[in-house]
């Protein structure tokens, strides 16, 4: 909270900074020539999938934030980094951010899993605040959507649960392309954050040892 008199000021500054990040990303996206979108992928687009995929409740999981790139019903409210894309999310976002600064325990988010990709069902603001503060993991209740094996395959295999059903074969090609491209970008971004974190930790460690060294020299000087 350096430079702010209280938590309310800090929360105001956090939201303003998060909105600035979303606006800058939108500007960069518009300047690109590959027609990429700066928004979240929409789970509703999976409605184009033929047939009914199986829904399996996976329970509580710890999920990497970089694998969250889709939304169920709120695609336009946050960008692909889950920064707030609309001012209408401000009040709720600030309440979550305030709880974050106070160290309050927040409930797990709810996610839909398709392949190795996650869509946020409940907890968009919690994910947004976590992403803003550089959190790498979130606790979540996960429901997985998997392709139902055909009856012919079940009869042939005799063990329908053997192997991993290929959901990707049922996803529309353009959506699959979007998921792949975003996963690559997010993985690269996560790697950059990890490298930055390691550099920061190294700098902090060097400063700590330098401080000890100066203190020891000062003690020896005074003794002499």
Short key terms for the protein model shown above:
224 residues; alpha/beta; 6-stranded mixed beta sheet; 6 strands
Beta-strand portion reads 15-25%
Number of folding domains? Answer: 1
The biggest beta sheet reads: 6 strands, mixed
Please provide the ordered H/E string of secondary-structure elements: HEEEHEEHEHH
Spatial extent as radius of gyration:
23 Å
Structural class: alpha/beta
- Ranges where pLDDT stays below 50 over 5 or more residues in a row are 150-170
Description:
With 224 residues, the protein is an alpha/beta fold. It has one domain (7-171). 46% of the residues lie in helices and 17% in strands. The protein has five helices and six strands. The chain has helices at residues 7-31, 90-101, 124-132, 151-157, 173-223; strands at 41-42, 54-64, 68-71, 109-114, 117-122, 137-146. It has a six-stranded mixed beta sheet with strand order 1-3-5-4-6-2, sandwiched between helices. A hairpin with a 2-residue loop joins β4 and β5 (117-122). α1 (7-31) crosses α2 (90-101) and α2 packs across α3. The protein is globular and about 50 Å long. The two termini are 42 Å apart. Residues 150-170 have low confidence and may be disordered.
Concise summary:
The protein has five helices and six strands.
Topology:
Blueprint: H1 7-31, E1 41-42, E2 54-64, E3 68-71, H2 90-101, E4 109-114, E5 117-122, H3 124-132, E6 137-146, H4 151-157, H5 173-223
């Amino acid at each position: 909270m350096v430079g702010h008199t209280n938590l309310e000021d800090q929360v105001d500054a956090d939201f303003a900074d998060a909105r600035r990040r979303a606006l800058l990303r939108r500007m960069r996206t518009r300047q690109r020539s590959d027609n990429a979108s700066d928004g979240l992928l929409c789970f509703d687009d999976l409605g184009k999938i033929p047939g009914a995929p199986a829904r399996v409740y996976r329970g509580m999981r710890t999920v990497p934030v970089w694998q969250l790139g889709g939304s169920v019903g709120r695609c336009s409210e946050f960008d692909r980094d889950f920064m707030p894309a609309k001012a209408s999310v401000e009040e709720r976002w600030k309440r979550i951010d305030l709880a974050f600064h106070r160290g309050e325990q927040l409930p797990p988010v709810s996610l839909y899993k398709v392949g190795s990709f996650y869509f946020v069902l409940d907890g968009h603001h919690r994910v947004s605040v976590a992403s803003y503060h550089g959190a790498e993991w979130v606790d979540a209740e996960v429901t997985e959507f998997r392709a139902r094996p055909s009856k012919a395959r079940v009869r042939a295999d005799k063990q329908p649960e053997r192997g991993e059903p290929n959901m990707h074969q049922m996803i529309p090609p353009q959506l699959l392309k979007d998921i792949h491209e975003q996963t690559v970008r997010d993985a690269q971004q996560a790697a950059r954050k990890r490298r930055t974190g390691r550099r920061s930790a190294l700098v902090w460690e060097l400063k700590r040892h330098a401080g000890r060294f100066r203190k020891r020299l000062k003690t020896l000087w005074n003794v002499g």
